[in-house]
Amino acid sequence: MNIIEILKQGICNINVVIEKEHIQENEGLLASGILDSYGFVEFLGFIESEFGITVEDDEFTAANFRDLTAMKKYIEAKLGNKK
Amino acid sequence: MSSEIAIIGMSGRFPESPNVEKFWDNLINSRDLIKEVPKDRWDWKNCFGDPKKNENKTDSKWGGFLDDVKSFDADFFRISPREADKMDPQQRIIMEEVWKTIEDAGYKPSFLSGTKTGVFIGASNNDYIELLQKEGVHQDAYVSSGSHLCMISNRVSYFLNLNGPSLVVDTACSASLVAVHQAVCAIQNKECTMAIAGGVNLCLIPRKYFSLSHAGMLSPDGRCKTFDKKANGFVKAEGAGIILLKPLKKAIEDGDHIYGIIRGTALNHNGFGGFEHSLTASNSEAQAQLLISAYEDANLSPDTITFIEAHGTATALGDPFEIAGLKKAFKTLYNKWNLPEPKTPHCAIGSVKSNIGHTEPAAGITGLIKILLAMKHKKIPANLHINELNPRIRLDKTPFYIVKELEEWKQLIDEKGIPIPRRAGVSSFGFGGANAHVVIEEYENKQEHIDNNKQYIIVLSAKNEEILKIYAKNMVDFLEKNKDNILLSNIAYTLQIGRESMSKRLAFVAHSINDLIIKLNHYCNGKYNSELYDDEIVNLWLSGEEVNWDLLYTDSNPKRIPLPTYPFEKKKYWYDSSIKKTIIQPQIKLKTLKTKNSP
Fold first, then answer.
1. Nearest residue of B to residue A61 by CA position?
2. A-chain residues within 8 Å CB-CB of B275?
3. What domains appear along chain B, each with residue ranges and CATH number?
4. CATH number at residue A12
């Protein structure tokens, strides 16, 4: 499973004007303006349903959601714990 | 907290709410007070557009606006029309609100003269100077004193001759709550004996709308949908609020009317730990630490806190971050107090931003005044615009619930069956990362005595007859609403010792509150004749003499109570007129003189 690709697709579903290749893996989604606050909440919902995980309040931190690379690491850890 | 601080006076004006009574009326009736930008601010059509595609455009045409920002009673404050024209209306509004706050506490403002009273005001926007510059208004000496933010508090200290610290705090949206914290600390550190604290915000130019809406922070539909799934940003708003503080012990000694007690306060900063490492991003961890500090300072069991007035800026991420911080703080506090997890939610969460928008530097004092009003009326107003809770806000197994309808604010009862005073907290977070939280407890004012005498001398005065009639009418309206809950002796006493004696005077003897209402109505209708109420002291005071009123109360102990305050004259002072006055008028005068003196 290519987590980064899935995440990029999720972003493109929300922000329909952005192209996948313009989303950088080490860029903040809010700071870059790719997603607004409202879009980010939608994106979290996408992550939860797509990967079958629940993002707890205390996991929703800069360390886990700073950029796509951090998110990938976080999702992998969650999926690993599930197994 | 080293010593508790009492709040003994309050006053404020908010969108479509010229005073706190009207503000409360609007809140309990769940009114949304946001409207289109009024024409006397700017024409919103000229700058309406997509902020991402065009420079100097905003997709918000909304705001919470004060009814009148141009009027001021310059004569009352001994300020010349030329100077008043150049004064930031935020200074003018604060001068009036401070006066009203002191009177609300039942004190003559001159009573504070020469005392170590501090003035702490939160303010960060300075739109008026930008307007003056844009319009090319002559930059005379009055522009400096009229536009500098520090003058908002310094001018109050100057006018009232106060010798405590006098400063303006700018931490953006948390400024007025930071000001309250500083006022509390200054009293505790003995830098001042009393303190005036609060904040002010006006929206006079569209410029700030451009960058805020470009950043997606302003709600394009003009609804502040705090905690709702569809929250899409805040709405800018105007407001001003002031409270008067003194040590609780002293307030009780002095027999003051107490609105509430400040039990704890805390400040902190997000550091760079905010989400996405952005300066403006929320940080639930820092917010949690802030609340833990505030409730540790208050030393109150967290299960006795029954209302939180949240910052609640209505952004889809900011709201859940705030709630996450709140949850984390209370979980820690519950553990520290060895309390079991709450079985049912008992702490209401509200945000006044859903009614009036975001008063930015005045937001904290706005929330604090909402809490004081809620304590007074024992009701918690509803949050507006919640159709579906933001999915990131999860309140199961927490003490919290979101208030969706006006509700009774019930008192908790301890295990011995003794009622616990209502307790609440208010949060304010600055967009630069500076946070503040204040913990308030209700205070039950005891009405110990009854009216011993059958009659009391009522006095009322103003600068002129027109204002005195408005004052008398306001008093009638107030008495009609409150006559069952107040004593004539307290009314008489407060008007005698808690109001300045001015040149136009009205005085008579009243035998009951109904009699007082009838006589005030007579005055309003032009039927008053002082000869009808012949009384030695009445005549003495009417002749312009000062009376030592305390001598009338040697065998009783009346109290200062909140009564209507001085109704300031509404005269327009704005920069347009100053251009004409400063540049054109002197030339005409010179010309006239020349002609007259010419042979």
1. B275
2. 30, 60-62, 65
3. 5-441 (3.40.47.10), 456-553 (3.30.70.3290)
4. 1.10.1200.10
